[in-house]
Amino acid sequence: MKTPSLPPTEHQPRQYAGPTAAEVLALRKQYLNPGIFLYYKQPLMVVEGAMQYVWDETGRRYLDGIGGIVTVSVGHCHPHVVAAANRQNEIYQHSTTLYLHPNVAQFAEKLAGKMPGDLKACYFVNSGSEANDLALLMARAYTQNYDVISLRNAYHGGGASTMGVTAHSSWKYNVPHSFGVHHALAPYPYRGLFGYDDPDAGRKYAEDVKQLIDYATPGKVAGFIAESIQGVGGFVEFPQGYLQHAYEYVRAAGGVCIADEVQTGFGRTGTHFWGFETQGVIPDIVTMAKGIGNGCPLAAVVTTHQIAQSLVGKVHFNTFGGNPVVSAIGKAVLEVIEKENLQVNAHQLGLHLQAGLAKLKEKHQVIGDVRGRGLMVGIELVKDRTTKAPASGECAQVLETARDLGLLIGKGGLWGQTIRIAPPMCLTQADADFVLEVLDESFTRL
Ligand SMILES: Cc1ncc(COP(=O)(O)O)c(C=O)c1O
Hints:
- The chain is of the alpha/beta class.
- It is built from 13 helices and 17 strands.
- The protein has helices at residues 21-31, 67-70, 79-91, 102-112, 128-143, 160-165, 201-216, 242-252, 305-308, 324-339, 342-363, 392-404, 429-444, and strands spanning 46-50, 53-56, 61-64, 121-125, 148-151, 181-184, 223-227, 229-230, 236-237, 256-260, 285-288, 299-303, 367-373, 376-381, 407-408, 410-412, 418-421.
- Helix 7 packs parallel to helix 8 (242-252) and helix 12 (392-404) crosses helix 13.
- The radius of gyration is 22 Å and the shape is globular.
- Pyridoxal-5'-phosphate is lined by residues 127-129, 132, 155-157, 227, 231-232, 260, 262-263, 289.
- Pyridoxal-5'-phosphate binds next to helix 5.
């Protein structure tokens, strides 16, 4: 049995003096909502983080290969982000949109500068669910249509409207929530009707959007919402041409196109700053969360001034949206991504991981598919490469072994069959090699 070594770090964690993991677990059971779940048979408690590493209460270090579910974009407690937050926390923490404050205006200017086309009107909210809820409202208010097309295998949030566009039974409570929502085929080359070997798969999957519009709606739609790479669904990247064709059909039916960039934005895909750019399209509305704040509750919707006009008839208000502290953080995150060339790093290390995983796929039969872009890498596990029966138990076991060896990773997919790797974008090549060694050993031990 091999025990891979974590690359060295200079960070010295503080002595932890708080309650034990068992005490915290007991408190959680007594006072927190019972619907939340924990990874690992022996729950992990993380009490400190520095860049791509985290420490548990015993001082044991782990490489964070999932970044708080694709959220820690530039690194845990990145000093530039912490300094920006601390500075603002000391001066003035909260304002509302009723007063002027420079931070939100300057952050909006910088964020809009990252957007293509006429996407220049920013709305700030606190979570991805809220951002998608607002985007759906905007689509309906602007088009005066009601029906929305979403994709199977999508995750867009847990609120009433976003649960409706989400399409995994695991996240949908048995209450009415999907009025006017129609779920098109997931453009999922590994499992879907049209595979990697079909050069026309993108257009063929998009044809289902057209069919839904023609058969299931009044022929007019408010919009179409899709993650640019499906996140919770297991890092499913669409075949080329899919969004282009789907957008054409939706726009021809009077709808607007919403890109959910909650996981794919901010350079994570490596080749592009936004996931939708990998498909050569420009959406009408873009939603973002997670990586935008590197872990602070910050989310946004960016659209055109023309679409934004549709919401001026009523007051749009969000108490915390874009408050001075989160705006300082959001601006600092963008500065770090630029200054430290993190998008390029995500691209290079993504290629390195994919090359290593291709070799592991030759060695371990349980690996059915390796996919993703940049630092968004999915490894779908199957019991049998022909039947593609999902290897959910094996996936859970790989997570356990990886944790024992010092690597935290995530999982996704309808059956929890896909390993998800999405570390902070400050990952180094030595870290990436550690990820590959740990995975190799974890698959070997299955
Ligand atoms: C693609 C996507 N959209 C929206 C959301 C919802 O974001 P939040 O949990 O911040 O409400 C998530 C959360 O995982 C997500 O992955």
